[in-house]
Amino acid sequence: MFSGPMFSGRKSAEKRREQIDAADQAAGAAMAALFGDDVEAARKALSSAPKTHYADMGWKVDLAYAMVELKSERRKSGTQRLVSVCSRLDETSLSLDDKNYLRLYALYRASEVSKTGKPPMELRDLVEDFRFDHTQITPLIRQDFPLKKVDDIVVAPPPPPPPPTDEASE
């Protein structure tokens, strides 16, 4: 009779969740580093990302890698990776709005780095004729992959107080 430990799927499911969370955090840290133009910190953050299934969090890690490639002035490989990520988004459980938002994000980034100002045709074909509801986009996706770079908002100083009126002189 076998008296060894009995394993259930609980441990493997927990380990998978931990890997997904770690990959998500690594991709988020990489994107934050890229916002600060620190490509090496972004590479280091991504190197700590555990291997996950594409549908779980692999898409996010791949998209962050594509952005590192683009920031490293490796236009061709970065753009190819963007096309690869966009063509596989349907394998994920992301909402249609999230997928379309990410495709538009990739289109914008590829346009920024192309010599002609236009992304490659294969990427344009993936993005053509779609719509999404901006309010339905997952906030973390918008945070990690903003469509446009937002500068820090400078708050205007309050207006100076009105000059004191000297009621005694009236």
Question: Would you write up a description of this structure?
Answer:
By secondary structure, this protein is mainly alpha-helical. It has one domain (11-169). Helices cover 58% and strands 0% of the residues. The chain has seven helices and no strands. It has helices spanning 9-35, 39-47, 54-71, 75-88, 96-113, 121-127, 139-144. Helix 2 packs antiparallel against helix 3 (54-71) and helix 3 runs antiparallel to helix 4. It is globular, with a radius of gyration of 23 Å. The protein starts with 8 loop residues before the first helix and ends in a 26-residue tail after the last helix.
Class of secondary structure makeup: mainly alpha
Topology pattern, helix = H, strand = E: HHHHHHH
Overall pLDDT level: 81
How many β strands by DSSP? 0
The largest β sheet comes out as: none
Label the overall shape.
Answer: globular
Number of helices in the DSSP assignment: 7
Count of separate structural domains: 1
Poorly predicted parts: 151-155
Global Rg: 23 Å
What is the helix content?
55-70%
Distance, first to last CA: 107 Å
Task: Estimate what percentage of residues fall within beta strands.
Answer: under 5%
